[in-house]
Write a sequence for this structure.
């Protein structure tokens, strides 16, 4: 989500996209409203940015003198212009979503072929069933349920088709990697003698051909 903390900028140069500020409606018109955000430069809210639903008349929603909370859409210090929105911005724009990004999202829909995950973008991303786990997955419902929070990695972003491909298994250790790690540990254990084994070897070396002592030490070792 966009940053919910209300900011108190001191100059227009302090304004950043998606920054949340408070203001007062100075004037309404057919096209939108003028809002004072306390910087000496009035901000403009276009009628399409007042609420998610359609607005027929601005005066039906906003009144002169009304206190409002708005988000910075664009600030132009050079030309002294501020564009505002009353619709909460998305956490990430399309240009901000990149392959290899690791995100946390919430499952919003489950289909036979995979699950859709809300990553706070314009569209939810799809985790195909083949990307849910390293092993065989009979159905997505065997692993997750709607509303679950999951960690995902971005595989591909198609801005033209408005598609985001995600993976859950990419953030998990594969069984092969885990097996190799265990095998490596076994090899280390086999190659590194214990203190007892080292003592036996030393004693055997010091036996100078004493076969009886060597046999006893060998039995102790086994």
């Amino acid at each position: 989500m966009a940053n919910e903390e209300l900011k108190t900028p001191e100059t227009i140069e302090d304004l950043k996209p998606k920054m949340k500020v408070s203001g007062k409606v100075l004037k309404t018109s057919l096209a939108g409203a003028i809002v004072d955000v306390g910087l000496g430069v009035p901000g403009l809210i276009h009628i399409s940015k007042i609420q998610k639903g359609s607005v027929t008349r601005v005066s039906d929603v906003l009144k002169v003198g009304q206190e409002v909370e708005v988000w910075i859409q664009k600030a132009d210090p050079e030309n002294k212009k501020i564009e505002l929105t009353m619709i909460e911005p998305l956490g990430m724009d399309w240009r901000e979503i990149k392959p290899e990004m690791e995100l946390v999202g919430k499952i919003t829909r489950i289909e036979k072929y995979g699950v859709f995950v809300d990553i706070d973008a314009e569209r939810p991303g799809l985790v195909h069933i083949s990307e849910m786990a390293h092993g065989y997955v009979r159905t997505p419902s065997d692993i997750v349920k709607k509303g679950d929070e999951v960690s995902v990695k971005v595989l591909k972003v198609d801005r033209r088709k408005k598609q985001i491909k995600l993976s859950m298994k990419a953030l998990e250790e594969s069984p092969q990697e885990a097996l190799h790690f265990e095998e490596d540990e076994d090899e280390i254990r086999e190659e590194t003698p214990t203190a007892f084994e080292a003592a036996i070897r030393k004693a055997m070396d010091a036996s100078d051909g004493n076969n009886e002592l060597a046999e006893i030490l060998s039995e102790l070792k086994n």
Summary: The chain has a mean pLDDT of 86. The two ends are 64 Å apart (CA to CA).
